[in-house]
Write a structure and sequence with these properties.
heterodimer, A: 148 residues, mainly alpha, 3 domains, 6 helices, elongated, B: 184 residues, Rna Polymerase Sigma Factor, Chain: A, Arc Repressor Mutant, subunit A, globular
C-alpha cells in the first residue's frame, strides 16, 4: 500500500511541480513501490492522451461580434429595468386609485367591492405562494452535488 | 502585476459607467471566459452565454469591486457560479435539450492520418469521462490539462493552497483514469 503522501506527490511529479528535494525523495520512494509505479504509468498515459487534445475552435466572426452582442444584452437589460420601474409605478398608482375611487366610494355596490376584493386577495395569495415555492427550491438547490 | 493594476483601473472606470473601458476588459478576457465556461458546461452555446452573462454581472457589480482585489479570481468565481446554474438547470429538465455526448468541445489534435480514427475515438471517450466527473474534479482537470495552468496559477484562481491543488488533481485524475478504464 503506497503512502498517501507519495500518492499525492505523484501529481506534482507528473506536472513537474516538485522542488528538487521533493523530486529526489519521491523518485527514491517510487523505485521501491510497484503500486505507485503502476499509478505513475496510468497518470503519464492520461497526460499524454489529454495532451494530444485541444478545445474546439470557434469561428473568428463569433469573436468579432462578441462585443456587439454583449452591448445589445446590456442595452436590453437597461430597457427591462426602466420598463419594470414604469410598471411598478403604474401598478402602485392604479392600486391607490382603486382603493380611493372604488373601495372608498359609497356609491359603489358592496357586492361588487367584495367580488373584486376577493379576486384581488386570491391573486396576491397565489403570487406569494409561487414566489415562496421558488425561493424554497433555490435555497434547497445543492450545487455541490451537481454531476453529469 | 501590471495586468492586475490595469484591470483595477479599468474596473474603476467601468464603475463610473465608461463603456470603452468595459470593451477593453471584454476584449482582454472574452476568450478565457468562454473556454473556462466551456470546460465546465461542455457545450459551446451555453459557454458563450455564460461568458457574456459573466461580463454583464461584472458591469453591474463594478461598484462593489474593491480596487485592492485581483480581478481575475473574482471574475472566475462569477463564471463558475453561472456554470453551476446552467448545470443545475440541465439536471432539472426531464428531457435534456442537449445531448452532451454530441458536444465535441474537446477534439483530437490533427495527427497521423492512419491513427486519426483511433484518436477521435479516444477523444470521444475522454470527453465523456470528463463530463461524468463531479464538477469540482472536472474544474481542476480542465484547468491543468486543457488550460495548462501552473499549480500557483490554479491556487490563486481557486483561492486554495498549492498542496490542495496537488491533492485535488491526484483524486480527480484517479477518477478520470478509472472511468476511462471502464469505457475501454
Amino acid at each position: 500500500m503506497s503512502d498517501d503522501k507519495y500518492k499525492i506527490m505523484l501529481s506534482g511529479y507528473i506536472d513537474n511541480e516538485l522542488t528538487p528535494d521533493e523530486k529526489r525523495e519521491f523518485e527514491a520512494y517510487l523505485e521501491q513501490d510497484a503500486e505507485l509505479q503502476k499509478e505513475y504509468e496510468t497518470f503519464r498515459k492520461l497526460k499524454e492522451v489529454t495532451g494530444a487534445m485541444k478545445y474546439a475552435d470557434i469561428p473568428e466572426v463569433v469573436w468579432e461580434n462578441y462585443w456587439a452582442g454583449l452591448y445589445r444584452k446590456l442595452e436590453r437589460e437597461l430597457g427591462w429595468i426602466f420598463l419594470s420601474v414604469g410598471a411598478i409605478i403604474l401598478l402602485a398608482f392604479g392600486c391607490y386609485h382603486l382603493v380611493q375611487d372604488f373601495f372608498f366610494d359609497p356609491r359603489q355596490s358592496l357586492v361588487l367591492k367584495i367580488a373584486i376584493g376577493s379576486g384581488l386577495l386570491g391573486l396576491v395569495i397565489l403570487l406569494v405562494s409561487v414566489i415562496r415555492e421558488r425561493i424554497f427550491a433555490a435555497v434547497r438547490d445543492r450545487y455541490d452535488e451537481v454531476q453529469r | 502585476m501590471e495586468t492586475e493594476t490595469e484591470d483595477s483601473k479599468l474596473m474603476a472606470k467601468i464603475a463610473g459607467g465608461d463603456k470603452s473601458a468595459m470593451k477593453l476588459l471584454v476584449d482582454r478576457y472574452k476568450e478565457k471566459a468562454y473556454y473556462l465556461a466551456l470546460g465546465m458546461v461542455g457545450n459551446s452555446d451555453e459557454a458563450y452565454d455564460v461568458s457574456q452573462d459573466a461580463f454583464i454581472r461584472v458591469y453591474r457589480s463594478a461598484k462593489k469591486f474593491h480596487s485592492g482585489s485581483r480581478f481575475f479570481p473574482w471574475f472566475y468565481s462569477i463564471i463558475a457560479n453561472l456554470c453551476k446554474d446552467v448545470l443545475a438547470r440541465r439536471m432539472k429538465k426531464e428531457v435534456p435539450n442537449i445531448d452532451i455526448d454530441d458536444c465535441e468541445f474537446l477534439l483530437a489534435e490533427e495527427g497521423n492520418p492512419e491513427s486519426v480514427v483511433l484518436e477521435k475515438e479516444q477523444a470521444r471517450m475522454v470527453r465523456k469521462a470528463i463530463m461524468k466527473l463531479p464538477l469540482e474534479d472536472r474544474e481542476i482537470i480542465m484547468l491543468k490539462h486543457f488550460r495548462d495552468m501552473s499549480y500557483d496559477q490554479i491556487a490563486a484562481l481557486l483561492n486554495i493552497p498549492k498542496g490542495t491543488v496537488m491533492s485535488r488533481l491526484y483524486y480527480a485524475r484517479k477518477k478520470l483514469a478509472a472511468m476511462l478504464e471502464e469505457f475501454d
